[in-house]
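Example A, followed by Example B.
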Amino acid sequence: MALSPDQISDLRRSGLTDDTITRMHCEGVRPKEIPIKSATSAYAIPYFRLDGTLNCFSRLKFVPEVVDAQGRKMKYWQPPDSSPHLYLAPLLGWQNVARHSTTELVITEGEKKAAAACQHGLTTAGIGGVWCWRSTLDNGDTLTLPMLDEFQWPNRSVLICPDSDAWHEGKEMQILAGFFALAKDLQQRRASVQFVMLPDIHGAKAGLDDWLLVPGHDVEQSWPKLERLTLDDPRFSTLAAWWQKWKEKQATHEAIKQNGADELVVTEVAGHYTVRSPKHSVSITFERLTDARDSVYAEVAIVIGATEILSGCKLGLQSDSGQGKLAGSLKAVAVSVPWKILLQRACSLVLKHHRQGEPIITLIPSASATVPFLLNPIIYQGHQTLIYAPGGSCKSYLALFFALVACHGGCHAGVAGLKVSVLYLDWELNAETLGGRLKALQAGHPEFSRHTPFYRRCELPLHQEAHTIAAFVAEHHVKLVIVDSAAMACGAELSSPEAAITLQRALRKINCASLVLAHTSKSVVEGQERTAFGTVFFRELARNVWELSKADEEHPVTLALSHTKHNFSSKHPPLGFRLTFSPEQVRVDAEDLANVPALQKKLATPSRIRNLLEDGRLRTAKGISDDLDIPLSTVKSALSRGKGHKWQQVGEDYHDPQWTVLRSK
């Protein structure tokens, strides 16, 4: 409802411009919707989040003011028992203000005053009343302005600016006490707090907005000249003594309350939080925590005893109304449980743990300077390995073989594995198909017959199921996760860096070693290195990267695994594998790539030269270059490095010598 002329005039009396009034989103309230019967006109002043969006809380301003049943004048109204809120006029970038403690912050009483000050260039937040920065919950707990936790306070200059009548004799407890307690709270957060003393104007009370309207009063010159008092000023001695007694009273009340309080126990496994109330035999589980719209949401499940009474309920951890609504529903199930209090405390605990993240530690030397292998030399413990190849290259067969090697432990086909639990995440096949391959591999390798990996058929992108998978990995002590394949696991455009980054974050959340299978195009421009399809970050975020190549012959299938990226060691020579298929079994053995012409090019240049010279024929560098189709400069460099210990020159023509291999004596 549009503002009436009287309501607009009321806002303008604080010096607010039409543009500021528009940006404040104030709205008139229909008379029948005004909660105070004696009020005839009111407008709503909405509150905002740090990002400038509305936060669903507002206060009403009566025009004119009304008198309640007790004869007290009322200018403003807000719902009873509502949580405290900080008014942030939508004229500034409050996220930057909150983030940077070098920005001086003014705090005053009232939304219009705060908006007027912001309009004049003072970074000013407002509170609805001198005590409207804290409230008491149903259980007696004190809730301090949650928004204060969003600001960086250490070394921030804070100026508290009450109305001028706060400094009138006898007003200390009526006006200044609430502000002084707030000042001490901010001081405990390591802010530097001072009070600004506004003078009366023409012998009458003045607020910050009134002071700014006086001709000649400006932010640059007049504002700094106003008297400022530190909290240890002698004029605050009475308030300081009161505050000490008030804090002692609060501490005593808290100690009495905690003596018989229900101690909540919070545990976390792979991002899943469980809060238990032993007193009420209640367990509240928070899963799939997500940050959205400047808040944190979770899927909540609640169990009483051994009975689940709620699951899959989305709840905002900072939503007082959402928690209250859920508590009201739960009362129908168990009326004796103080659901509102329990949910508030549980949400607060989970939010605190969620935002803490990984602790900051003192880095100490490890037992070893090298990163240990889980599957030597392919997969490191706790890190990601990427294997990429065109479709039809037997990636899944080889990955399943590696899974069996890790499940069994020991050395097989040239790779050595620790004995660990493995989880195979499959987006491309299904349990029946992969189970058939498992049967064939176990038939070809009887030693694997009692060792199988865990398996999960996947549909959603990995990051959407990372919490569930991480919980399984932690519970079953899984040390290796195989992702087949990256394209489906990302669930996003593969050319976007965000696809690889999102996948990496999900793998970090799962928190164990991983083998990610990726596709690549079958067609590659001659001379170019084949890479995983999509953004370069798939390669860069993995710690170990291998290219899988397949020879053209199908019986048996010969594969070459070439090391293309290595973070923790030197480059490993290519690995060869021979897959022998028969109707009932598949066997994987090591293969010498020197015996596979189609894959010899995957060998390092020195290995290829030595294999060529093994036939006993003398060759010049040019002849070696022609036979192996390797650039002459590369051949000459390799010959020079291996001269005298791998091969030697023959003859006296030093301009174009011939070469032969050195054989061990």
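Example B, a separate protein, is given below in the same form.
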Amino acid sequence: MASILQSRIAGYLWAVLGIAAVTAICAPLHEHLTDTTVALAFLLVVLFVAMRWGVWPGRIAAALGVLCFHFFFLPRIDTLAISGPQEWVALAAFFITASTVGHLSTRERKRAAEAEAGRKAARLLARLQAVVAELGQMALRSEEVGKVLEEAVALVARTLNVDYCNVMELLPGGEELILRAGVGWKEGLVGRVTVKTRDSQPGFVIRSDRPVIVEDAAMETRFVLLPRLLGEDVASAMSVVISTSDGPYGALGVHSRLRRMFTGDEVHFLQAVANVLGTMIERRRAQEALQKSADEIRTLNAELEQRVTARTAELQAANKLKDELILRERGATAELEAAREREVEIGFRIQQNLLLDQPPADVPGLRVAALTVPSQRIDGDFYIFIRHQNQSLDVIVGDVMGKGIPAALLGAATKSHFLKALSDLMALSKDGKLPEPREVAMLAHAGVVRHLIELDSFVTLCYARLNVSTRSLELVDCGHTGILQMHHSTGLCQVWHGDNLPMGVREGEIYDQISIPFEPGDLLLLYSDGITEARNPARELFGVERLQECVRSNGHLEPAALVEAIRKAIFAFSKSDRLADDLTSVAIRVEETKLLLARNETEIQSDLKQLRRARQFVRAFCHSLPGSPLHEDSTSALELAVNEAASNIMKHAYHGRTDQGIHLDAEAFSGHVVIRLRHLGDPFDPSAAPPPVLDGSRQSGFGAYIITQSVDEVRYYRDERGRNCIALTKLRNP
């Protein structure tokens, strides 16, 4: 009201002074000025006063202007009488102009003030929302409730510009509250002082379960304000409830020594902060409950393991006694049969563990699958996969003459000589350049040829090196079947052969290699003669032509499906459950190479306390990517998926053991990010996992469900080193 009066008084003064100034200036010059010019001068003063100070100062200016105009400038000068119609019209025009302009000016000033108030409110709301978002991120990153509460009260106090801010925690029993966190209070009060729930402001807020605002503390009679309970002075206050699913945790309050009004946005801001704190506290309680449950499960598992161990020992003792009685009765024939069976079993393990490598599952630009079907339980077919750092892959497919354990042992020896030859040549390389496949083949042949000749045996093989960066294949064909290439662009199938002798035929053999170009989409197949020499009941060979037709018909399939289709075609052609020779095939699909932008790796222990390290590893990698980092939502989702995958490995693959290792590696490409977790625990079969039940009737199954919902692709497989691998892929935002 005072400002309005001051503004109007200034307007009246300007009205008088403006009319007086125009009169003083125009009166001496009246003879040189027209009446219209003088009237316009008075009208300008009226317009200026009405626009600046409103209607009533404008009307005063209009009245004074008309009177001065009549008194000093119109005929019958020195009189105030308004006698003619024109003079009344002029007076009316002055008044109407002053009123209209005053109203318009007042309305525009009011609109401008309202617009400015709206902009201030929007800026305040944006700032409050940013503070809530910052606090939410802080609560998500930190696992210490006390630290988050301290940061929250400091943030709220700065944002609302108040003298005090506090979090009061409701103690067990509900009779007292403790000052858990706060700013502005005397030293030593936080974490120690308690107040009664019954008569205090925080207790009233918790009982009413709604925000409580005190604009004038002197008029408050419902309760005693917290600062006054603690000997502090306060004029205004606001408090809200911190709620959780288990009931109220306590109250969040702010207090000001100066009297002030809290806006609706400020109330909503304080309640939003309380909601974030309640969610954080509830999440922390859930984590503690989960940890407690995990500890109980480990204890139960340990007790169960002890009982199973004792019972197993009893059963083993009984079975041992029974086996001894049976072995005595069987005699020498049974002992020989058992020895032979053990020999076969050892040979089978030799083949599976020493002769057949696991096809690599994560070679950039290549998808690989392999399959072998022995004609007996043990055979001499083998294949080797060797990855190099320069985006190349060595594939060796070999076939030892003969069958059974001798062939398997020769295959293992040949494989060992190749690996040793490659290692020796790489050690001798001064510039780190890979030795050529023919050099490796010649050195390996020199080491094994005399043994093969003495044993009257030989080995056929194909040694292929695929270089994805140069899109070329270097092939050494040692009397083998060659390599079949299906061109993606034309669908043409072509078989490439070398002219080298098998290994073990003669000493000093010189091995040559040929270079074969390939393109993305091409399919490469290495195979044994057990495929092309399979016969049907009419003694017809399956042959290369049928193999090419089979590849053309199934070339659109994934490599694993293709080798399985070839196997089915061979058995369908032969019309027999047993083959005359071993069947081995390796299929390789060439894909577009994706440029690796960044890579990192780390190792954690199988302890639930290590989950934080895993999450930090993911977040640090995603935030340090070249160019733009991964979007925050995608980073959080990938972080959650890795947390769930690592937790499942610790609980299920390692059965709660905390002394095992989990290897994490991260790779970033232009369109996606891949995190892999590798371990040596029990494998996980996603097809055997039941889907989660969302009605709460069963607790299991949520881990795998959360993982699939958090990332764009999940793969479970065994890598080339025999480790179980979980690959999580998250697409990058364009």
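On Example B: Residues 1-5 have pLDDT under 50 and may be disordered.
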